[in-house]
Each structure stands twice: as structure tokens, then as C-alpha cells.
Amino acid sequence: MEERLIKNYTEILEHELVPAMGCTEPIAIAYAAASARKLLSEEVKHIDLCCSGNIIKNVKAVTVPNSGGQKGMQVAAILGVLGGDADKKLEVLSTVTDADREKCKSLVNTGFCKVGFEEDVPKLYIRVEVSGENHKVRLDIADQHSNIVLMEKDGEVLYKEGGEDKQDVLSTGGDRSLMSLKGIIEYADTVNLDEVAPTLQRQIDMNMAISQEGLDNAWGARVGKTILETWGHDVKSCACARAAAGSDARMSGCPLPVVINSGSGNQGITVSMPVVEYAKSLEVSKEKLYRSLIVSNLVSVYIKHYIGALSAFCGAVSASCGAGAGITYMCGGDYHKIGKTISNTLGNVGGIVCDGAKPSCAAKIASSVHAAILAHSMSMKDQGFNGGEGIVDEDIENTIKNIGYIGKVGMLSTDREILNVMTDQVDVDSCL
Questions:
Q1: Looking at the whole model, is its pTM more than 0.90?
Q2: Where do you find CATH 3.30.1330 in the chain?
């Protein structure tokens, strides 16, 4: 494999597999608020927060991590201002104290933070304006959860993406246009594991810890616990339960960090936990586990690259495609079988919609992982869905592009209507 391609895939892994605390959308709001407060350099008297519809959708019903059970955009912004550490980026709220949580509760309903909806902006967009006694700061985030694109203080532009001091996240995060399924498999086969093992082991350790927390305690809807209590403890059940349990805890405010994938903690848990469970059951080497995780992570990133950061397409599906591909690779599957696993998964659960971050995400993860395991079992027997059947194409690369088009373009109106329903902007009865 060409050295430039090896380097590119390594950069993608290092850029994507980073720790984050809780659901990444409220964390992004908190990061923006904490960064704005740091720039203000005085006590914040008022916050104005405007976000894209997809940010609103993903923050509305999820518990803000380390908040003591509080929910919502205002809570995320206020906690970011009160106790957030901007230098920690997606772990910004790890420094929040009991005093910060109590003060946040007292400020939420006072008008201290006003929230608005911003139209005609990227799907992932946050604008925070913080005002003090003497100064005012505006800070914008777009496209990626920690990608600051604008900083202003007292009307003066201090930084704007595209300017001479531009720090392009993607310039150091790898070129997704160079990705292919064959390239991912070749990279997994040949990369020197010393270059990526620390990143992969951190993913295993952190995601296993929050998964275990979800199994040990009563978080969320207890999807993971329910699976083990009712389905048994074979590897298929454990793979679904482990992934769901991590989401159970994460969606309900567990402060443990998660190593994310495609900007999502849920997707980071989904690509890793099923692969780890199969590695334990099959008693494969640590090297085989790492190489399988490379396939899982990169397949998920590859599919999500076409869909975009946030959409009405449930990211648990693309992440489960990655997990299924990683399991097939672990079991000796070649390019053809790995491609079949992805096609079989998309042909089954490609229609799951995202209606925001919340406890039911754990169930969607369990369903998607279950579909991916079925897809893996079918592909190992050379069984699956054929080209021309629905969105499935003979060429797996085209199937992936098909689902990318559906998620990015075809579901735009679906995304808007989901948001309308969630924010009570439509009289459903009158439309039926």
C-alpha cells in the first residue's frame, strides 16, 4: 500500500477516535460557551444561543453530562460558562462542580440564557454570544463539534475560518475522498500496529467502562440489562447488550468519557463493543482485535462521510455496518464477504430515522447491531441481497454511495418534519 494512503488512514483514525463526555451535541454547545467565556475575560451576564435544527433535535431530550440530571440547550450553555474548561474540548464539562450545577438550576428559568433556531446554516451549527459588563463575544461552531469557524470580540473579528490563520481540522484529519472498502481492508492488513494501538486500546478501555456502567446500574431504559436478562449470554446477545448498555448510560448523563466515531459517542460505542465481544468469544489475538477494530471504525467513517455529520439517518446503522464488517474480517472474511455484510445490513435496517438523542437510541443500537450480526452470518454463507434489490448495488462502493445520497439528500424533508413534530410546530391530526 502506498505510504501516503497509509498515512491518510492513520490520520483519519487519530482524528476520529477522540474522547468525549456525554452526548456530543450538548457538549459542543458547552464547548462553544466555555470558549466564548474564556475570550470574554470577565463575568458573563447574559448568553444568547442560536443553533441549527439538528443540534436542537439532539439536545432536546438528552441529559447533559455531569449536570446532575438536567436537560436542554440552556443547561449545556450555562454549565459551559460556569464551570467548563474549553481546553478539554469535548470533555469540557468534566470540571463542573456541585456549586456549578446548583447555580445552573437557579439560572435556567431567569432569562440568563436565551435560545433561538437558526435557519439556512450547516446541519451542525452553533452560535454563542456572551455579554459581560464591558465586552461582548460571539463564537460560531460549524460542521464538526469542536470546529470553531468565527470568533468576534466587541465587533472585531479575531478569527474567521478561511482567513490567513485558518486551522483546517480536515487538513490534519485525513482526506475521506481517498477512502475505499478495498483500501480500508488493505490498510487493516498491513499497517504497523504500533502507530494506532494506543488509540484503539483507549477506545476499548473507555467504551468498555461506560458499557459496564450501563450493565451494572439503572441508566436510561435499561436496554442492555434487559437484553442480557431475557436473551441470555451468548455472543450475539452480549454484543447487542454491550453496545446498548453504553448508550443507556451515556444518553442519561453518565459522566464517563467515550471514544467517539464520526463525531458521535453512540457510534463510537457501536463500532467497538460488538467487535470486542466477538474477540473474547473467539479468543483471537490482540493483534487480530486491533485490526478488526480498524475495519470497523473506518467502514463507519467511510459510510458517514457520504451522509454528513447530522441527518435524519440514524448513525447507529452506519456504525453497525462497521461493527459487522469488523466481525466478518475477524472471522476471515474477504473483501467480497465484508462487502456483503455491509449490503445485507443496509438492505435490512437502512430506514431507521434519527429523532434526536435520547434513551431510545440504545434500542436502535441493539436493533442495528442485531441486523449487522445477521448480515455477517449470511455473508459468511455467501448469502445476501443482490444488486438491483432496493438500494443495494452489485458494487458495494455504489451501495454505500446510494445510502449516502438517501441520508444526505433524500431525507432532508424528513429531517425537517421530524424537527417540526418534536417542537410542536405541526398539527399532526390535521395532516392525517
A1: no
A2: 24-169
